[in-house]
């Protein structure tokens, strides 16, 4: 039975590791300086070399003839670790051995000394699959293991590993391998295996592997199973087409939409994954959009020279706004594809949304053309000069004297006011908006019109706003009141005193009738003069209570 390519070409020393320079440097420096930790956590995407580097690190630690940091690969310990027969390097699958009893068995064997090596090394793959109980059982052993024990844990989801475990390990992150590094490794494998290949086919495999070298080697083996590795054979393996085929499809979408629809439907009819197809289209249009915005961005894209030339040429035929709308449509389709919608519906939705975008562009009216005609003779526009009217000092002095006797609030508000005549009106031009707003209140404006009535209409002004003061109308007075010259408060007090001192005609009416009749009569008379009866009664009751308190104080004295 032949060995798979990803197993046959698994790296056996640090020099053959591809695309993990930072992780290799950390481990090799620790080996050279003799500062090896008791626990390590390797995290990264699938197929990036976590388990392979863990085995190389274990060989370097237990190698009997190590030179520097590289294992010799020929001693008994190195050969046993490579073949998986070493009793001192134990590999545990965390996905299938995730119970508490498995970790308890590990704890019992930890204290045992290694058989024929310096260290006993435990490699736990997919450690995030351990149960919470298993993590708790491992915690104390991981924190203070024996001096001859080293733990190396690997995971694709480090966030699922409890913080208590991560904090006791040296966390070394692994990165996805770039398409260029994968392409170089595939070329090396094809040369070693005498496989004829097309460079574009290997480039397509490197792009489709999504940063996983193990997946790339598996795809290479699958493509080479029936002959040479050509681009056509690689497209048939993937079932979604290559990058170049999607580039041709994008040109058809721009020039012949009907042909583009037929090509996309034929792709779905052959069983292509809708999610994979829309991901490829989205990636292509994203690259095209970036190039349309920044011409020099091609150096940052991991593409072949042919793909870069295509992007530069095709970007001239698209507006960035058009590509931006296409990306929005594809994002919506990707969300729907992940939910499991049928490919026919997705294809129809895609065509419908494209047609809707085209209609919006057709209905959009062209921007109006504004023609500027220069005048024959350019004359500067007239500048409005504000008119400043001087204050009539004599008139202001007269009004201030009147206000000082009648209303102190109006008196104080008039100090910073310019007062002058405009025809028959007297203008009070306020400097501050607050004074203007307070004086224009109906109560204050009526008082101003009343005390300055002999001077004509009074107009309040603040900048462009004007307000004409109007007198209040006199409230109607009841016929049985003849002393209209008295203030309303004084007349109310007289009414209350008269009602209290007057005896009723009937000397012995019922108490309730007497009280109701007097109260009702009082309310009607107070309302007739426009006062609030409850306030008058309250004032009267307060004055009586004050008199009572004063009499009691006099009695005490």
Helix-strand blueprint:
Elements: H1 5-8, H2 21-33, E1 39-43, H3 50-62, H4 76-83, E2 89-93, H5 100-110, E3 120-125, H6 132-143, E4 149-155, H7 163-166, E5 170-173, H8 179-193, H9 199-208, H10 213-223, H11 231-238, H12 243-255, H13 257-269, H14 274-293, H15 305-314, H16 320-338, H17 343-363, H18 393-406, H19 408-413, E6 417-422, E7 425-430, H20 433-439, H21 442-451, E8 458-462, E9 465-468, H22 488-501, H23 511-528, H24 533-556
Parallel strand pairs: 1-4, 1-5, 2-3, 3-4, 7-8
Antiparallel strand pairs: 6-7, 8-9
Helix pairs in contact: 3-4, 5-6, 8-9, 9-10, 9-11, 12-13, 12-14, 13-17, 14-16, 16-17, 22-23
Written account of the structure:
With 557 residues, the chain is of the alpha/beta class. Helices cover 54% and strands 9% of the residues. It has 24 helices and nine strands. It has helices at 5-8, 21-33, 50-62, 76-83, 100-110, 132-143, 163-166, 179-193, 199-208, 213-223, 231-238, 243-255, 257-269, 274-293, 305-314, 320-338, 343-363, 393-406, 408-413, 433-439, 442-451, 488-501, 511-528, 533-556, and strands spanning 39-43, 89-93, 120-125, 149-155, 170-173, 417-422, 425-430, 458-462, 465-468. The strands form two sheets. The protein has a five-stranded parallel beta sheet, with helices on one face. Strands 6-7-8-9 form a four-stranded mixed beta sheet. The model is unreliable at 374-379, 474-485 and 508-516 (pLDDT under 50).
């Amino acid at each position: 039975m032949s060995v798979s390519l990803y197993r046959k070409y698994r790296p056996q020393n640090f020099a053959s590791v591809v695309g993990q320079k930072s992780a290799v440097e950390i481990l090799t420096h620790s080996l050279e300086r003799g500062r090896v930790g008791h626990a390590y956590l390797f995290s990264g995407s699938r197929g990036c070399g976590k388990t392979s580097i863990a085995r190389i690190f274990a060989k370097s630690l237990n190698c009997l003839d190590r030179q520097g940091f590289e294992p010799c690969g020929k001693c008994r310990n190195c050969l046993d670790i490579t073949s998986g027969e070493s009793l001192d390097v134990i590999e545990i699958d965390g996905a299938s051995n995730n119970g508490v009893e498995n970790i308890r068995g590990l704890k019992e064997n930890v204290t045992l000394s290694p058989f024929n090596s310096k260290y006993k090394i435990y490699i736990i793959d997919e450690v995030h699959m351990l149960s919470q109980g298993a993590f708790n059982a491992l915690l104390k052993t991981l924190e203070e293991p024996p001096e001859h024990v080293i733990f190396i844990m690997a995971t694709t989801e480090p966030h699922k590993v409890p913080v208590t475990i991560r904090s006791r390990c040296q966390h070394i992150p692994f990165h996805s391998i770039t398409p260029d590094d994968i392409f170089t490794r595939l070329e090396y494998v094809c040369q070693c295996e005498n496989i004829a290949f097309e460079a574009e086919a290997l480039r397509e495999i490197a792009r489709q592997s999504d940063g996983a070298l193990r997946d790339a080697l598996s795809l290479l083996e699958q493509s080479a199973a029936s002959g040479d590795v050509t681009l056509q054979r690689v497209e048939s393996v993937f079932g979604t087409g290559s990058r170049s085929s999607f580039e041709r499809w994008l040109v058809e979408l721009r020039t012949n939409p009907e042909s583009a629809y037929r090509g996309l439907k034929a792709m779905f009819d052959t069983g292509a994954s809708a999610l994979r197809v829309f991901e490829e289209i989205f990636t292509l249009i994203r690259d095209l959009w970036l190039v349309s915005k920044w011409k020099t961005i091609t150096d940052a894209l991991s593409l072949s020279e042919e793909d870069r030339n295509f992007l530069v040429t095709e970007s001239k035929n698209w507006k960035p706004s058009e590509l931006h709308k296409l990306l929005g449509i594809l994002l919506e389709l990707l969300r729907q594809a992940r939910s499991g919608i049928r490919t026919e519906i997705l294809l129809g939705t895609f065509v419908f949304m494209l047609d809707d975008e085209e209609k919006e562009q057709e209905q959009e009216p062209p921007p109006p053309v504004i023609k500027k005609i220069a005048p024959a003779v350019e004359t500067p526009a007239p500048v409005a000069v504000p008119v400043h009217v001087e204050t009539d000092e004599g008139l202001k002095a007269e009004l201030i004297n009147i206000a000082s006797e009648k209303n102190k609030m109006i008196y104080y508000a008039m100090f910073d006011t310019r007062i002058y005549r405009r025809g028959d009106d007297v203008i009070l031009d306020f400097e501050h908006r607050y004074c203007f707003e307070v004086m224009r209140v109906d109560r204050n404006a009526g008082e101003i019109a009343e005390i300055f009535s002999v001077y004509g209409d009074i107009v309040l002004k603040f900048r462009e706003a004007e307000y004409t003061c109007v007198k209040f109308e006199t409230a109607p007075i009841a016929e049985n009141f003849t002393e209209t010259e008295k203030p309303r408060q004084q007349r109310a007090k007289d009414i209350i005193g008269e009602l209290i001192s007057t005896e009723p005609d009937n000397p012995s009416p019922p108490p309730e009738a007497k009280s109701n009749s007097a109260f009702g009569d009082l309310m009607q008379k107070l309302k007739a003069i426009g006062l609030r009866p409850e306030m008058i009664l309250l004032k009267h009751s307060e004055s009586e209570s004050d008199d009572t308190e004063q009499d009691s104080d006099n009695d005490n004295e």
